[in-house]
Specification:
This protein is of the alpha+beta class and 148 residues long. It has a single domain (2-131), classed as Alpha-Beta Plaits. 38% of the residues lie in helices and 18% in strands. The chain contains 7 helices and 4 strands, in the order E-H-H-E-H-H-E-H-H-E-H. Strands 2-3-1-4 form a 4-stranded antiparallel beta sheet. The radius of gyration is 15 Å and the shape is globular. It starts with a strand and ends in an 18-residue tail after the last helix. The mean pLDDT is 96. Bound molecules: ribavirin triphosphate and magnesium ion. Ribavirin triphosphate binds at residues 52, 57, 61, 91, 109-110, 112, 115-116, 118. GO terms for molecular function: ATP binding; metal ion binding; nucleoside diphosphate kinase activity.
Length: 148
């Protein structure tokens, strides 16, 4: 089953939206495989957003991601990467559609509450950055008939 890394960024923790956002991933039918609260050091933020190095928003993005604790989660399920990106909405909270995390709860481009891996390959790399293999838990959902 496909896995993806989801981060509830520091604004989600500060705004006390951890429960509200997590509920949406849970109710979608995804399975929680890992969960922790992390005060990201700059080095981790740099590695996580390495693809954006050199862009005008890069330094500000690193300052944001290291400004307070982040909730790191691994979610698993059928096409988990795409399913989570759909739940999140597009980057800019103004443009994100209603019903999405960012569309319902964010107004900013940068402070947009969540990160989600954008491909299964990047998900594997990102999960390895944020989690040790032994931090991930495999278990069966007792009634999995409705989970993809
Ligand atoms: P993410 O990687 O966090 O899931 O977000 P994303 O794919 O929707 O957006 P991406 O282009 O990868 O940008 C990463 C994060 O950088 C911040 N950002 N700021 N000021 C700006 O123009 C700008 N553009 C992007 C956002 O926090 C975005 O989620
Ligand atoms: Mg991205």
């Amino acid at each position: 089953m496909q896995k993806t890394l989801i981060l509830l960024k520091p604004d989600a923790v500060q705004r006390r939206l951890v429960g509200e956002i997590t509920r949406r991933f849970e109710q979608k039918g995804l399975r929680l495989a890992g969960l922790k609260l992390v005060q990201a050091p700059r080095e981790l933020a740099e590695k996580h957003y390495a693809v954006h190095k050199g862009k005008p928003f890069y330094e500000s993005l690193l300052t944001f991601l290291t400004s307070g604790p982040t909730v790191a989660m691994v979610w698993e399920g059928r096409e988990a990467v795409a399913a989570c990106r759909n739940l999140m909405g597009v980057t800019d909270g103004v443009k994100a559609g209603p019903g999405t995390v960012r569309g319902d709860l964010a107004l900013s481009v940068q402070n947009n509450l969540v990160h989600g891996s954008d491909s299964p390959e990047n998900a594997a790399t990102e999960i390895a950055l944020w989690f040790k293999p032994e931090d991930l838990v495999g278990y069966a959902i007792t009634d999995s008939s409705w989970v993809g």
